[in-house]
Design a protein that fits this description.
- It is a single chain.
- By secondary structure, the protein is mainly alpha-helical.
- It has one domain.
- The protein is built from six helices and three strands.
- A three-stranded antiparallel beta sheet has the order 1-2-3.
- Helix 1 packs antiparallel against helix 2.
């Protein structure tokens, strides 16, 4: 089976829509927050040719900046805890973060004339990737990530 970036993006979009529309159906506020962040990370990884670690670092920095802009007294604790586990407010804030991430992803990551359907993921030999890696990409487009240390 050939898995494309479009397949991953479609899955993530559908799940994000469902989670943000009815967050209470997906678990506690903290569980919803973590699941939404994982889906956004999946979208980012499927949308760029950057190294996975760079992409995840970029997402972490962007989320940290987002939280500090919305919650001035922010701490390292999950956003859900900082807003009193209010699922409605959390869904609204995570929806705003999703919009921000997707705006950043659309802001230049795709090469001219290239569609996501042309970007495919292919299985590689496990010995070349380590135990946890199942897929590697053959993408050629680049994304302008903010350069920031990831801690």
């Amino acid at each position: 089976m050939k898995l494309t970036a479009s397949d991953l993006l479609e899955f993530a979009e559908e799940r994000l829509d469902a989670m943000l529309a009815r967050p209470g159906m997906w678990g506690s506020a903290e569980a919803v927050e973590m699941q939404v962040l994982l889906l956004l990370e999946l979208e980012a990884v499927a949308s760029t040719s950057r190294e996975v670690n760079d992409t995840l670092c970029w997402m972490k920095v962007l989320y940290r900046q987002f939280i500090h802009a919305r919650v001035p007294s922010a701490t390292p604790a999950p956003l859900a805890q900082q807003i009193g586990n209010d699922l409605e407010r959390l869904a609204r804030l995570l929806g705003e973060f999703r919009d921000e991430v997707q705006k950043e992803l659309r802001g230049g990551m795709q090469a001219p004339g290239q569609s996501h359907d042309e970007i495919s993921l292919v299985p590689l030999a496990p010995e070349s990737l380590g135990q946890d890696a199942e897929f590697a990409d053959k993408r050629t487009h680049r994304m302008p990530f903010p350069e920031a240390p990831c801690m």
